[in-house]
Input
Amino acid sequence: MSNTPPVCDYVGSDYRARFWENQGRDYEDQVERIALRRLMPANGTTLIEIGAGFGRLADEYVGYDKVVLFDYSRSLLREAQAHLGDDPRFIYVAGNWYNMPFVAGLFDTMTQIRTLHHAADAPALFRELARIAQPGGNYVLEFANKLNLKAILRYWAKRQMWSPFDREPVEFVELNFDFHPRWIRQQLQAAGFTPGRTLAASYFRLGWLKRTIPTKLLVGLDSLMQWTGQGIQLSPSVFVHNAHPAEGETAVPYTFFACPHCQTGLGAVVDGRLACPNSACKRQYRVENNLYDFKEPI
Ligand SMILES: [Zn+2]
Output
């Protein structure tokens, strides 16, 4: 777990209250749900949301037998748990996404919304996701698009230094990146995914529009505009459906967690701990109130 790129930590943050509640983000929330439903199978066996935060989208996953809410922040996961209650479908897992604590080929569906912008090394993340992806499954990724209309206009007006046309990711604030759609597709393909249907979302993410036009109308327009993403994406948010790599392992039934350090499969929880059976490793991880904590060994 040592040499991974830096990870953005929301521990103890007031992200939910600060960003989502009473902040006029109904529009973003609703258009993201529409895009997600269009690209994600409604039912399945095992789903993971990468960067699930406080579980804002958890109610979209009720058609799945097992739902892993994965995040780097323990406190956001505890918030998710507080409002989702004791629903046994949900499993709360804290960890580093460059070293996922799961056996290979486990998840038939993976979703990631509004978190890739914290990936300092997106190609490494995609490679790790390809490992835990079950062949035949689906990965729905949302990313912040650097090639958006606002950035293009600002660049042409010389009010922004970086070029939205340049393929490389731009770090506009420390550990906050925007990505070029072509670059993202290339990196997904390099990791073995097959990017397919693409939606352009949140074209109307502008304060004055949201204040003057009823949310319902904006959401309806966005819902229509999303389909244009199949041709060109100039929206601040892009959703892309990916088929999982066809080659690869499928997890053996009844295996689930693996040591994030050595990838050895883990057995049952004993005394609030998961112990790595690899004698050269022997790391132990804490399990407390249905929160599996793989951020660091005990
Ligand atoms: Zn181990």
